[in-house]
């Protein structure tokens, strides 16, 4: 009888991005040549789409192409918390956590090349998310390094921009993931 393939948890999948602790330089890559690409979707099966430079979550029946998310590590912060940069594939922009004029925490796409953030991670907390597997090994969450306790989230409604919310809020803060490269 064939054994069932083990699906890696988020923590297992991104662990080798943080090889700094590897004693053997043969195992440890010195730099990532390009970001990893992931497809992300929330618990309500809403996927991420790029609409007029805004990431929105919508059901897959949308006519828009799915947006893959580029991921690279931020090795300037505590690697045990798996800090990462995230941005739309093939775009010169990254997710950034900002405080709006009315004091609300939110996500913006800022013009920053993810490779530039990776190469020079100083003063990049606003672009960094602490990533971890959720209790359910199939899902993960992304906590803002800039605003601890606030997580990347999707609205319960379709076609709404992604945002930041706290765990106790009604928004979805857990994501399924599938590595594409």
Automatic annotation (TrEMBL):
GO terms of molecular function: cytokine activity; interleukin-1 receptor binding
InterPro entries: IL-1_CS (IPR020877), IL-1_fam (IPR000975), IL-1RA/IL-36 (IPR003297), IL1/FGF (IPR008996)
GO biological process, one term: inflammatory response to antigenic stimulus
SUPFAM superfamilies in the record: Cytokine
Sorted UniProt keywords: Disulfide bond, Glycoprotein, Secreted, Signal
Location relative to the cell: Secreted
Any single Gene Ontology cellular-component annotation: extracellular space
UniProt superkingdom: Eukaryota
Listed Pfam families: IL1
Entry keyword annotation includes Disulfide bond: yes
Family the entry assigns: Belongs to the IL-1 family.
Function of the protein: Anti-inflammatory antagonist of interleukin-1 family of proinflammatory cytokines such as interleukin-1beta/IL1B and interleukin-1alpha/IL1A. Protects from immune dysregulation and uncontrolled systemic inflammation triggered by IL1 for a range of innate stimulatory agents such as pathogens.
Protein name: Interleukin-1
UniProt source species: Notechis scutatus
Name of the gene this protein is made from: LOC113414407
């Amino acid at each position: 009888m064939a054994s069932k393939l083990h699906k890696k948890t988020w923590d297992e999948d991104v662990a080798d991005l943080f090889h700094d602790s590897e004693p053997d330089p043969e195992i440890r890559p010195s730099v990532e040549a390009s970001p990893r690409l992931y497809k992300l979707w929330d618990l309500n099966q809403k996927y991420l789409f790029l609409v007029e430079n805004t990431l929105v979550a919508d059901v897959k029946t949308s006519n828009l192409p799915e947006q893959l998310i580029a991921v690279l590590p931020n090795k300037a912060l505590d690697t045990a918390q798996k800090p990462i940069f995230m941005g739309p594939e093939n775009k010169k922009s990254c997710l950034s956590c900002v405080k709006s004029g009315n004091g609300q925490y939110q996500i913006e796409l800022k013009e920053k090349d993810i490779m530039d953030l990776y190469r020079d991670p100083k003063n990049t907390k606003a672009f960094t998310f602490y990533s971890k597997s959720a209790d359910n090994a199939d899902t993960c969450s992304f906590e803002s390094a800039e605003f601890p306790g606030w997580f990347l989230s999707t609205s319960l409604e379709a076609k709404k921009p992604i945002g930041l919310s706290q765990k106790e809020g009604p928004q979805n803060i857990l994501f399924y993931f599938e590595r594409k490269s």
